[in-house]
Amino acid sequence: MRVIVNGEPHELTDGLTVAGLISQLSLNGRRIAVEVNREILDRESYAACSLTDGDEIEIVHFVGGG
Amino acid sequence: MQSSPVVSETDDVFAVGGKRFRSRLIVGTGKYKDFDETRRAIEASGAEMVTVAVRRVNITERNKENLLDYLDPRRFTILPNTAGCYTAEDAIRTAHLARGAGVGDLVKLEVIGDDKTLFPDVPATIEAAKRLVAEGFVVLPYINDDPIAAKRLEDIGCAAVMPLAAPIGSGLGIRNPYNIKIILEQSRVPVIVDAGVGTASDAAVAMELGCDAVLMNTAIAGAKDPILMAEAMRLGVEAGRKSFLAGRIARKLYATASSPLDGLIG
Q1: ipTM of the assembly?
Q2: Is residue B108 annotated as part of the catalytic site, yes or no?
Q3: Measured by CB atoms within 10 angstroms of the end CB, which terminus of chain A is less buried, N or C?
């Protein structure tokens, strides 16, 4: 399936969960927030949330700022 | 907000948003050479609360180090900002994302009106503040030095007001101390000067006016020696605060001799 992650298209295996995506991107244990189609997910929901074709995902973290 | 009270050093805690701090200096984490310099400058500043921005993870460079590898969230209060947002909607969305990352309900609300001055869009800031307060955020809004705007934000339920000294990164120091003084007189929430500080005396001036704290980033990160400037700022904030608490002498037009007139020779 094709999804958009942080503005870029990605091909992922069908039914991959958000938890699976986080793992694939080596972001486990990182302090991040995830939004799927403009809805912010609780960390507890990552494993239960299966992605589908066309989903738009934002993964953010904290960077230096004033 | 307060005239010069007599408080002991142990009483002089800076309380905001349900948290208590000994340091009245809040520092940003942007514009440093690298994470190590960031960490060392923050150490030298004595700050206990730091601001961070919320940005997309770089998917292709995901094994890079992260800022929070260098700043222990158990040691520092992380204050996420909504920098880069030009609409209330974006700021609200960013605040929710920041909360989603699990560092608490604090947010430094910035809704920018113009990319040259980076002045706040006041109506949009008020709109975003209303929504965020209603959604349980502890809102610290970046605002201009307009007492009316500050009052509105306090009335909405913001945990503090953060009037700018001067444009972000401009280093001009407090351009309108009279407005800051008016804001201080009317506010029942902490007043934190945020943005535009350039050097230690600027920070001291803010504290001498009676401000509760000072927030700065560029003044430290952009200095030739950021670690030394961070230390200078720590001392400037402390000196200014002690001056304020000590109760300065009045300003007079004419002299009053310091040495006695009695016993003069001749």
Answers
A1: 0.94
A2: yes
A3: N
